[in-house]
């Protein structure tokens, strides 16, 4: 009995040692497992932090004003001539024609974010001359009045309008007053207003008006010889909010009627 007890005890001790050993190795495995999970979580947190930071930066960028927007505009070099970059941390180029056409084409939806036309029917902009070599009139100011705005079902990203260009010059011959009917369109993709020359082709001068995409009260207009494409004048246009003109009152009344 005694002899048989020793191997029994020994077996028991061995069993306990074995169990402890097994427990020990499973603890190591557990620790390894935990370490691995921790590492994985840490890397996930780092990823998340990076994503959050990118988003915050993007939000910050989208909140900034005209100047930074223009710098970003200059930096947009990855896209082609008639392409728009979707912006944010997701570089993507889409055709200019798809900006503000009522359908989301950018993965981040940026192409439909800012689609407010910077002018409405009846609005009046006055251009102050920077230089003008276009003709003998050489006016100090040009007034542009938006008469009608039309949607184009085929190109919803363009907005077509009828406008009147008004020029008043006091010279030795007296008082020259011109009122030129014209047509044009606005391209949302690059905030560009394109004023065609006179519909009868008499003047042959067009205007490219560059809005900055944020300020709807101002654009820089370059007068262009339509046949050569050469810039012959530059005027800085600003929205005219003065109510001291009878005609303007009339324009406003017209617009008021349109609202109903
Ligand atoms: Ca679109």
Structural class determined from secondary elements: alpha+beta
Number of strands: 10
- Write out the strand line-up for the largest beta sheet, numbering strands in chain order: 3-4-5-6-7-8-9-10
CATH level 1 name of the largest domain = Mainly Beta
Radius of gyration: 35 Å
How helical, in percent, are the residues? Answer: 25-40%
- Written as H for each helix and E for each strand, in order along the chain, the element string is HHEEEEEEEEEEH
Overall form: elongated
CATH architecture of the largest domain: Beta Barrel
* Average of pLDDT: 76
Q: Summarize the biggest pleated sheet.
A: 8 strands, antiparallel, barrel
SS summary, helix count: 3
Signal peptide: 1-21
Pfam family, one: Ldl_recept_a
Protein name: Hemoglobin linker chain
Domain Annelid erythrocruorin linker subunit C-terminal: 118-240
């Amino acid at each position: 009995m005694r002899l048989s007890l020793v191997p029994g005890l020994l077996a028991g001790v061995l069993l306990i040692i074995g169990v402890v050993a097994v427990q020990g190795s499973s603890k190591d495995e557990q620790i390894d497992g935990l370490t691995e999970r921790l590492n994985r979580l840490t890397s996930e947190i780092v990823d998340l932090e990076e994503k959050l930071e990118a988003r915050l930066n993007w939000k910050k960028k989208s909140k900034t004003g005209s100047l930074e927007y223009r710098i970003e505009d200059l930096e947009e070099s990855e896209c082609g001539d008639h392409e728009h970059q979707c912006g944010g941390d997701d570089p993507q180029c889409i055709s200019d024609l798809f900006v503000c056409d009522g359908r989301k084409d950018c993965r981040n939806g940026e192409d439909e974010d800012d689609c407010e036309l910077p002018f409405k029917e009846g609005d009046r902009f006055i251009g102050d001359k920077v230089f003008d070599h276009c003709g003998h009139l050489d006016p100090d100011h040009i007034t542009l009045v938006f008469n009608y705005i039309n949607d184009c079902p085929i190109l919803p990203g363009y907005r077509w309008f009828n406008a009147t260009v008004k020029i008043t010059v006091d010279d030795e011959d007296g008082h020259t007053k011109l009122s030129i009917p014209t047509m044009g369109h606005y391209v949302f993709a690059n905030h560009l207003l394109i004023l065609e020359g006179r519909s009868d082709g008499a003047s042959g001068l067009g205007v490219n008006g560059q809005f900055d995409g944020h300020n709807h009260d101002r654009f820089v207009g370059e007068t262009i010889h339509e046949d050569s494409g050469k810039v012959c004048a530059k005027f800085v246009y600003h929205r005219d909010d003065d109510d001291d003109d009878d005609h303007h009152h009339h324009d406003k009344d017209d617009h008021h009627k349109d609202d109903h």
